[in-house]
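Hi W.,

Here's what went into the run:
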Amino acid sequence: MLYREAGQFKTDYAADQAIFPILQDRIFLGLFLLLALVAVPLLANEYWLSTILIPFLVFSLAAIGLNLLTGYCGQLSLGTGGFMACGAFFAFKLATAFPDLHIAVVFLLAGVGTAGVGILFGIPSLRIKGFYLAVATLAAQFFLVWVFNKFPWWVNYSSSGVISAPAREIVPGFFITGTQASPVTKYVFLLVFVAILALVAKNLVRGKMGRSWMAIRDMDIAAEIVGIRPLHAKLSAFAISSFFIGIAGALWAFIYTGSVEALAFQIDRSFQVLFMIIIGGLGSILGSFLGAAFIVLLPIFLNNTMLAVDPSISTAIVSHIEFMIFGALIILFLIVEPHGLARLWQITKEKLRLWPFPY
Amino acid sequence: MTAPRAFLPWLIAVPVAIGSIGLLFQLLGGLVPSFFFAWGYYFEVLIAGLLQGVMYSLVALGFVLIFKASSIFNFAQGSMALFAALTMVGFMEMGVWWPFAFIISAGVMVLVAVVIERVVLRPLVNQDHIILFMATIGIFYILDGLGQMLWGSDVKVLDIGIPRDPMFALGAIFEGGILINQYDFVAALTGGVLVAVLAVFFQYTRTGRALRAVADDHQAALSVGIPLKTIWVIVWSVAGIVALVAGIIWGGKAGVQFSLALIALKALPVLILGGFTSIPGAIIGGLIIGAGEQVAEVFLGHFVGGAIQDWFAYMLALVFLVFRPQGLFGERIIERV
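Here's what came out:
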């Protein structure tokens, strides 16, 4: 009834190419952002902010990065953890070597550095594809974690091998890293930062670059024949994907956990992000957010439910059952809706346009 | 399945490669003072690496079997090994003699295969490869959780009476002889026997022929009346039993524990080196990775701070892939639009 586009005419090209062509979508998004930006910081407590919303935003960014590479360009990558580690340690070195550099610039530069590493490990993609490539990206995963774990230069020779984010302000008086930072400022900064980057990603995939990625994904030889250069398309996908993932890694270390060691970016992390984009929907920016929300919330939800049902249950059993339910849910999800949550959302919208009439 | 291969080039290439790497190291030993090298020691490391490589091959074999028959990249192979080994230890702790425990565990693995086929593979027929791959990660989580919930998550000792004493060989040629771990030797022998049995099974039995037909072309196999679903159950069962053997051998060496599930990660570079679809490839790839990794760790590792085992195999495979994308024995990649 309410969700109907009748009467909304597009009179220029700008309107035709808008990201959200339907008025109701724009209103909904505006309200949603307003809610996230104003109501959430006012109402949410510290637990919600720091264990659910902040990791959700960080993971969303990582999922967007991986989705650009795997969902849009079709290059399966299992090196996400390694690239996140890159971002985290680059940011740490930059922040400690240049204390005057603004923290947002540090994050962006860490992303640029990770993009360089991504290009390096993307080179094999020019020769190999599919699972061969997936295994090849594992080389990045193991090698990078080993480098950050092995050479104490990366942690400024601290004996514990852990990096702690130095305290930095985003604007004078508002710390977003370090111990003085309050979860609310962290959350607001992350929200704005991630929203801007998501907008950038959305526009990238709508533009020339994104179209060339999708052509490569759908059939690389055909794409090559119609004049898309695989070298440019694949390496740019690796670079930009790594840029996003690197920033996500830096945000993880600086804002979410505050202090981190290289072993936090093991292969589990890669799989976690891969799950997010598969469950959220390959080739969808919205799907990255939905998948991240699902994967972040699911373990917390399972844990709490099990403890609520039987408080005397041992933590080992809980974690084992959690493993099993997690695995079963993933299989169930793949069987029921292989195109992910984004597809469900799309179906809902199509149904809503007709509602309450049958057609 | 396997065309007769030219063995002569291999017979020449392998000793030449081993010899030239040795010579290179000897040269390095002359130039860099901290570099220790002796031929006897080199061969000792090499043999240890090769024996280790056989174990990698065992895990890789399970991958190849499933990938050939159903083009599924089965990430759960490692956790199948863990689950099988846990089951076996569990029954042995109940006082079952180990050959019986082995048979029971093999039965359990067949059951697992049937369930996987029914519940996971059948509804997912015709989906993208990546979806099936994610589904096997789901299986990985379930088997991990289930195995540890049923049998506990402590490190368990699995002892089926393989001798563990080191032994010396070739004392006449090298000073002091070459130290060989007897356990590794027996394990390698077991692996060899298993591979031979599988080869005979694939080559000479009716089921084996059907398996090969399915591996070559699903549609064609289906159209001549080969029951695809039965074949999948058989393949997953065989892969489960291979996982059981791998689990016993690895578990016997290092104790049955969670990290066993991660040996799958060790088998991946073996796979890309040997080719996803080739059984001889899995074996030779395993040997190359095992030997290369060991030699690199011992002779080169300390220059960069050690523990390069984690990634060396991947780097080796990566460099190799750039020159030969289909692996050593993989099928030629032919692309059509």
